[in-house]
Fold ATP-dependent 6-phosphofructokinase.
Amino acid sequence: MKTIGVLTSGGDAPGMNAAIRAVVRSAIYHECKVYGILRGYEGLVNAKLKEMNLSSVADIIHRGGTILQTARCEDFKTEAGRKKALNVLEVFNIDGVIVIGGDGSMTGAVKLNEMGIPAIGIPGTIDNDLAYTDYTIGFDTAINTVVEAISKIRDTSSSHGRVNIVEVMGRHCGDIALYCGLAGGAESIVIPEIPHNIDEICRKIIRGKNRGKLHSLILLAEGAGNAMELAKIIEEKTSMETRATILGHIQRGGSPTATDRILASKLGARAVELLLGGKSNRAVGIKCNAIVDVDMKEALTIEKTLDMDTYNLASILSI
Ligand code: F6P
């Protein structure tokens, strides 16, 4: 393996830059040439790439977003698009590719392997929705961003004696809502994995008010409902002023936490080691605090399950 390509794809996540840095620096350390492929698979299909050196990744470990930029590419999902990508890889003599992204990006990486290009996946998404790894790069930063926002919402919410619904991202996964609900002391956590009962949520709010609570906070995962609609129903049922806040893309930005930078650095270095060791179709991740690598195609078939201990604990503590 002499030349490696690296790309970021799908929604960006804080810590992706730290992962790019780790890939580029480890590859150069092992005397490889590295190309940064711009805008994910779109850059691969349209030959948008640049050679990276040690300075290309200087001063980025602390920066959110991705210096390689990212995109969701429809072209690569077609055979014609993938053929173009293969030509580009041949022209630039790229022997293997490291893909940083979520499940859609890894599905693309599996395709690369099937086309005979060794590819390794690094989990980069705020959603934490990949079952084979305990954490994905970006999740820790996103939950810290949300918890900081919740603290601010609490201040105004208790001044006015209101109920506040905070809607967070996560697509079909409730992890951001679950962990932030626990860390932010939410009364209720509404996530796609567990059916919710509006009347039970309202009873909790009213019980809290009757024992002198100044406000109520509900964490809602985007995959479980709509904050505005939920706020309307709760206001009607509890007669308490209710507001909804949709945090949106603020959750995807910001300087990555130390935890995300460390995870990204370790995963980036492991991905390079795997490619140089002749491995392909592996997804790297973290399990019980150890860096692991697993078959990427199989990893994508594992169904993500909710951490019920955390959910039950959050329910007990918000009684
Ligand atoms: O996958 C990351 C994510 O932020 C999801 O949580 C969210 O549903 C989606 O991307 C939003 O995508 P976009 O940035 O394309 O609107």
Observations:
- The two ends are 57 Å apart (CA to CA).
- The chain is about 40% helix and 20% strand.
- Residues 143-252 form a domain with the Rossmann fold fold (CATH 3.40.50.460).
- The CA atoms of residues 181 and 305 lie 17 Å apart.
